[in-house]
């Protein structure tokens, strides 16, 4: 991948995407600490975002200046957050267009439910549906794609 003078300078090695109210104080902190302890520069919204920042614009800029994303996909709660889904969609777009590295962590869900958008994983998208159909379909595609990465990782590890 050729670099151009217009591409953003990398600020973070890792962009950590998660549903804060579900994992910020438990699982996410257990992921964050060893990364930071080994000297990895991690974007963590609590450390970096200023009050009053335009959330989606700022997160998009931070994703653009990171070269690795760890996606923590939660049960229904990750998909119920529009900002999490917008973040995920942005990350998956960058994966497809710029080779952005995406490592999903499924906590504590079965990725097959996410890939099929079945049961409890379908409900949040139904709730978003009336608002902006095109955007919701883009979010669904990103959600299914990140769940499909689990199959690729299993095959790679075998």
From TrEMBL:
Reaction(s) the record says it catalyses: NAD(+) + H2O = ADP-D-ribose + nicotinamide + H(+)
PANTHER family in alphabetical order: TIR DOMAIN-CONTAINING PROTEIN, TMV RESISTANCE PROTEIN N-LIKE
PROSITE patterns documented for this protein: TIR
Claim: Metal-binding is one of the keywords in the record: no
Gene Ontology BP terms: signal transduction
EC number per UniProt: 3.2.2.6
EC class: hydrolase
Annotated TIR domain residues: 10-158
The name this protein goes by in its record: ADP-ribosyl cyclase/cyclic ADP-ribose hydrolase
The entry's keywords: Hydrolase, NAD
Gene3D superfamilies: Toll/interleukin-1 receptor homology (TIR) domain
Source organism: Gossypium stocksii
One Pfam family per UniProt: TIR
GO molecular function term, any single one: NAD+ nucleosidase activity, cyclic ADP-ribose generating
